Amino acid sequence: MISSEAPPMEIDGCRLFFLNPPAINPFEEEELNDQSIVLRLVCPDLGGKGFSLLLTGDIERGGERRLLESGTDLKSTVLKVPHHGSISSLDLLFLSAVSPEAALFSVGQNNPYRHPHPDVLAAYQALPAEIYRTDQDGAVVIETDSAGWRLKRYRESRIQKIRWRSSLPTQEWENLKRALLRF
After folding, report:
1. Which residue has the higher pLDDT, 163 or 38?
2. What is the CB neighbour count within 10 angstroms for residue 112?
3. Nearest CA among 90, 151, 150 for reference residue 116
4. Which of 31, 70, 101, 162 could hold 27 in an S-S bridge, CB 3.0 to 4.6 Å?
5. Which domains does the chain show, CATH number per domain?
């Protein structure tokens, strides 16, 4: 079993850290979400200023607090928001420690849990971070190269219907760009 005590993996100049679950599990058996795998990818040389990605699984406040208390550097360029934006996963100290430039909510459209919770969404919108939501944007792809990183929304790559009362050349140009930039 890989735990947070496992050494990081080296991949093409990047390091993959296993932050959770801990080797000795402090969580109760019913706290399954806090036993989620949490990974942090750090690419210090990417694009000059580096890139990092924090994948948080379904951890809740207990898991977030444990990560904070571990003293691990959590600051990340992109954060996959914990537990689909559930209110049980909103710890403002954790959010401040991560301080993402982009926050990705992995959430289904019209999901029965009504994720993301409005208070969680408001907390992320208060950051200087760009918000991505799979229920609204479709798939989100992170592209990296030596120049840096960028996030692409599937919605932005879809060809749009032409509206006959609008500027046809402008719409056609936008569709051409979408077609050329498809996933």
Report:
1. 38
2. 6
3. 90
4. 31
5. 9-155 (3.60.15.10)
3-state secondary structure of 24: coil
Strand partners, 132: 104
**Each residue of 6-42: pLDDT tens digit?**
889 998 889 999 999 887 766 666 678 888 899 999 9
Helix (H) or strand (E) holding 70: none
Token pair of 24 as six digits: 């000795």
Strand order in the sheet with 38-43: 9-11, 14-20, 38-43, 51-55, 78-80, 102-105, 130-133
Q: What predicted TM-score, i.e. pTM, was given to this entire model? A: 0.81
d(CA 53, CA 104): 11
- Chain centroid offset of residue 175 CA: 28
Q: Are 50 and 148 in contact (CB under 8 A)?
A: no
pLDDT at 2 over 70: no
Of 64, 135, 124, which Cα lies nearest the Cα of 100? 124
**Chain length of the chain:** 183
- Cα atoms found within 13 Å of the Cα of residue 63, Cβ hemisphere only: 27
3-class secondary-structure state, position 174: helix
Q: Which of 39, 9, 8, 7 is closest to 21 using CA atoms?
A: 39
H-type alpha helices, the chain: 61-69, 92-98, 118-125, 134-137, 154-157, 168-180
